[in-house]
Amino acid sequence: MSAAPVVTRFAPSPTGYLHIGGARTALFNWLYARGRRGHFLLRIEDTDRARSTPEATAAILSGLDWLGLDHDGDVISQFDRAHRHAEIAQQLLAQGAAYKCFAPQEEIAAFREKAKQEGRSTLFQSPWRDASPDTHPDAPFVIRLKTPRDGETVIEDEVQGRVTIRNDQLDDMILLRSDGTPVYMLAVVVDDHDMGVTHVIRGDDHLNNAARQMGIYTAMGWPLPVYAHIPLIHGPDGKKLSKRHGALGVDEYQKLGYPAAGMRNYLARLGWSHGDDEFFTDAQAKEWFDLSGINKAPARLDFKKLENLCGQHIAAGDDAALLHEIDGYLAAAALPALTQAKKDTMLRGMYCLKERSKSFPELLEKAHFILADSPVDMDEKAQKALDPVSRGILVKLTPQLQSVSWTREDLEGAMAEFAQAQGTKFGKIAGPLRAALAGRTVTPSVFDMMLVLGREEAILRIEQAAASET
């Protein structure tokens, strides 16, 4: 009999953008499931109605879409399943694994305050735990889980190892509030069970929650999922990631022009390793990713490593796919879209644009000669490069270019012959040519620009520059 398929889930709260830490959690779950031909599910934990917004949900879905993390099945709303959560709470109550607690909030608060002043444990032990139903008043109540008072709860965690928590350190957590609404801790367990989640991979800030949630699994007789609590991400200074460290939301990284493949690669390496491999493809990541490779220590965000990996992914990327992603970047950054004509020329020139570009803004900067229209505006350095002598050389060069075969080899040969005839070296001609073709002095190779622009456009720009008055 074959083993049950791996099922992972990503369960964000829609209270804001998709945080970079949440994106990495989603990626780890996605890689683990996809590498084992399992299922990766998405659940929106929107039970906090005061803070959950449709806009935040849309931002999360958009962030996952940009990262390329596709999920299986429909997006599950936790709030929509409240009746199911309440049903389980009532079932636990009926089987004696939970009880009604009538202690008012004021009484609990007073107990905790007194315990705090006296240096005692503030863990509230309800007097209603073993009370006979005959003694129950006609008053509001919550439903609490009966947590064992003695012994230990052991979490066998794939990342943190064996974690032991004394049961007398755990309270009888509330399952249903007095208004009948379920709490998050109950909802998570019921949803994970009903969705068939086999592996819970999440931040280690949920480690203590696991001990409390295991009580529900045990009381219901449900199999426990495999737990893997991953360390949080810190800033380069080793402190908890915050706005002072730079971009926090995945949407910001898209607006900065990083390619999604580079982000996936970098986030996978952020707290997980496979030997000394730094650069790898999605296929390799899916094949290699396992829980044993996750580090216990918090990972540190390193923008230089991110840029380096993004540069490698741009260089190795499919030209048409890169152009499609550039469209997405321009839209996300609220920049003007490319015309179809510019896209066609960009596609032709991608080979010389993507090398050593670490982001799409850098690539587009190199593509300035494509994006500029004739007559090309000259920056200050380009104007200086086009002095009267240089313009005179361009005037003589134009007839030579009219008849030469428009291949790299022939263009290089023609330029070398022309430079020799002028008693100079090609390097002296290259500066004015760069200025003429791009309006700048720092550009891709002159020959690349001429080939990408084509004979007609390249000669037109050289003629216009030669005739210009600087």
Automatic annotation (TrEMBL):
CDD domains: GluRS_core (cd00808). GO terms for biological process: glutamyl-tRNA aminoacylation. Monomer. InterPro entries: aa-tRNA-synth_I_cd-bd, aa-tRNA-synth_I_codon-bd_sub2, aa-tRNA-synth_I_CS, aa_tRNA-synth_I_cd-bd_sf, Glu-tRNA-ligase_bac/mito, Glu/Gln-tRNA-synth, Glu/Gln-tRNA-synth_Ib_cat-dom, GluQ/Sye. This is Glutamate--tRNA ligase. PANTHER family: GLUTAMATE--TRNA LIGASE (PTHR43311), GLUTAMATE--TRNA LIGASE, MITOCHONDRIAL-RELATED (PTHR43311:SF2). A motif ('KMSKS' region) lies at residues 240-244. Residues 330-465 form the Aminoacyl-tRNA synthetase class I anticodon-binding domain. The keyword S-adenosyl-L-methionine does not apply. Belongs to the class-I aminoacyl-tRNA synthetase family. Glutamate--tRNA ligase type 1 subfamily. A motif ('HIGH' region) lies at residues 12-22. Signal peptide: none annotated. Its main location: cytoplasm. HAMAP family: Glu_tRNA_synth_type1. Keywords: Aminoacyl-tRNA synthetase, ATP-binding, Cytoplasm, Ligase, Nucleotide-binding, Protein biosynthesis. Gene3D superfamilies: 1.10.10.350, HUPs (3.40.50.620). It is found in: Cytoplasm. It comes from Salipiger aestuarii. One of its GO terms (molecular function) is zinc ion binding. ATP binds at K243. The lineage of its organism: Bacteria, Pseudomonadati, Pseudomonadota, Alphaproteobacteria, Rhodobacterales. GO terms for cellular component: cytosol. Its EC number is 6.1.1.17. Residues 6-307 form the Glutamyl/glutaminyl-tRNA synthetase class Ib catalytic domain. It catalyses: tRNA(Glu) + L-glutamate + ATP = L-glutamyl-tRNA(Glu) + AMP + diphosphate. Catalyzes the attachment of glutamate to tRNA(Glu) in a two-step reaction: glutamate is first activated by ATP to form Glu-AMP and then transferred to the acceptor end of tRNA(Glu).
